[in-house]
Amino acid sequence: MTEPAYVTTTRTAYDTVADSYAESLQNALDASPWDRAMLGTFAELVGGTGPVGDLGCGPGRLTGYLASLGLDVFGVDLSPGMVDAARRAHPELRFVVGCLEALELDDGCLAGALAWYSLIHTPPKLLPSVVAELARVLAPGGRLMTAFQVGDELRRITHGYGHEVSLDAYRLRPDVIAEMCIAAGLTVEARLVREPQPPHEKTPQAYLLARKPVTGPA
């Protein structure tokens, strides 16, 4: 099966910037109480109920943070360069190369799935199948947390973290992502939109939390 072009270009771009990206964002959570609050809520809801996947984990900064909150967490990323950076930063955790479009995970194996700005490079018309894949790997009662920039436009990125790249990034509407979650069989529990934090953010940012229903006895 031929790999979609957007997957190849996304991998290439993140391989190019992996080390610079890891260095630039290693302390970013310190300046983002909103991110810490949402990740803390996610960790409290899924903690102790099973493994958690940081899907699109990049250099593992959030994987490490969730581990510090007590979660049994591992990371998956499309970019081998990012996975190498994550393994160096967090040798005690497990990181593997993988693709959100076809996760090498069993049905219902995760208590939690984090997709933190990892849906933004998939063309919106293809996103329902990715959300369905995230729902597939959740156990009944498991939760999906996702974050993304708010909007409905495409950005072509040609420079990032000191490197020339070629990468598409899509801003997304919370209601649209919520509808995709519902179509995938999830129940949307919460959504939050906050204003951008200067100087790096230009648009509002969204967080969305959804749960896979328990169909049998709890």
Features:
218 residues; alpha/beta; Rossmann fold; 9 strands; globular; SAM-dependent_MTases_sf; methyltransferase activity; Methyltransf_Superfamily; transferase; Class I SAM-dependent methyltransferase
As residue ranges, the low-confidence spans are none
The class by helix and strand makeup works out as alpha/beta
Strand order of the largest sheet: 3-2-1-4-5-9-8
Helix segment count?
Answer: 6
How confident overall, as mean pLDDT? 94
* CATH architecture heading: 3-Layer(aba) Sandwich
- In the CATH hierarchy, what is the superfamily? Vaccinia Virus protein VP39
What fold name goes in the CATH topology slot?
Rossmann fold
Give the number of domains: 1
What is the CATH level 1 assignment? Alpha Beta
Amino-to-carboxy terminus distance: 40 Å
| Strand and helix order | HHEHEHEEHEEEHEE
Question: What is the 3D form?
Answer: globular
Estimated radius of gyration:
16 Å
Protein name: Class I SAM-dependent methyltransferase
Keywords: Methyltransferase, Transferase
Domain Methyltransferase: 54-142
GO molecular function: methyltransferase activity
